[in-house]
């Protein structure tokens, strides 16, 4: 099935979906400078270990109610300065703004900042996406900007409506790029507490990622909010599970989570080597379906191998404007 977006994008990395509060201007400036330094020094090692694939300038949960205006103004200044140009263009990473939900009375003002500076960012993240009507409302207001939409599924009702939202977005021309799973709000709506095992979101994660992938959309996994040093093993285990389930990346709230996500969502060297050999054999055989190293190979397997090599090229820095 075709992706629900209005334009075909080049392959992007989504391993780390990193939130920075809009009123934390020093943190925002630090991230922008890190990207600039990586480009200037061609420091690909630091690109892999320190810099997120997607930076989300946040107006919503990461910002106190009393600081909403300050966050919006801080994001506006950042976008006007175009300080993330090296991040977006040279490194081919993604800059987003997470606006406030539609029921807050803050959405229009947040969105106006994004529309005014639409050429300085890539996507808009809409929290508490509950219906196709909400997506259509947002699409109308960003029409002609080239901005794409990332929705956030944060309730059982939204999870049940996902397929309808995806189909409707295709029919209505909503530039939908993907979805983020908001596990904390989801659990609150279920009336259950988050546990270390995450059993309470097991069904939701599986359904969420299957809907996303059936429509060719990016799927971003739940956030882990425990930042104690002792939690690293737990976060690593949960992140690897997300990758195994089929997610493209994970929401992050602390820099020390970046290398964990990058390790989990990056193709392994063994997989890269196998994909390279498979595609070489396919070129030589010229057959639509064939046997390779004891396995039956068809077109879906070929596409998977091609995507693995494309991701590997981005990770190595091939094709980056350095």
Automatic annotation (TrEMBL):
<dbReference type="InterPro" id="IPR040442">
    <property type="entry name" value="Pyrv_kinase-like_dom_sf"/>
</dbReference>
<feature type="binding site">
    <location>
        <position position="154"/>
    </location>
    <ligand>
        <name>substrate</name>
    </ligand>
</feature>
<keyword id="KW-0460">Magnesium</keyword>
<dbReference type="Pfam" id="PF03328">
    <property type="entry name" value="HpcH_HpaI"/>
</dbReference>
<dbReference type="InterPro" id="IPR015813">
    <property type="entry name" value="Pyrv/PenolPyrv_kinase-like_dom"/>
</dbReference>
<keyword id="KW-0479">Metal-binding</keyword>
<feature type="binding site">
    <location>
        <position position="98"/>
    </location>
    <ligand>
        <name>substrate</name>
    </ligand>
</feature>
<feature type="binding site">
    <location>
        <position position="154"/>
    </location>
    <ligand>
        <name>Mg(2+)</name>
    </ligand>
</feature>
<dbReference type="InterPro" id="IPR005000">
    <property type="entry name" value="Aldolase/citrate-lyase_domain"/>
</dbReference>
<feature type="domain" description="HpcH/HpaI aldolase/citrate lyase">
    <location>
        <begin position="48"/>
        <end position="255"/>
    </location>
</feature>
<protein>
    <recommendedName>
        <fullName>HpcH/HpaI aldolase/citrate lyase domain-containing protein</fullName>
    </recommendedName>
</protein>
<dbReference type="InterPro" id="IPR011206">
    <property type="entry name" value="Citrate_lyase_beta/mcl1/mcl2"/>
</dbReference>
<dbReference type="GO" id="GO:0046872">
    <property type="term" value="F:metal ion binding"/>
</dbReference>
<dbReference type="InterPro" id="IPR040186">
    <property type="entry name" value="Citramalyl-CoA_lyase"/>
</dbReference>
<feature type="binding site">
    <location>
        <position position="185"/>
    </location>
    <ligand>
        <name>Mg(2+)</name>
    </ligand>
</feature>
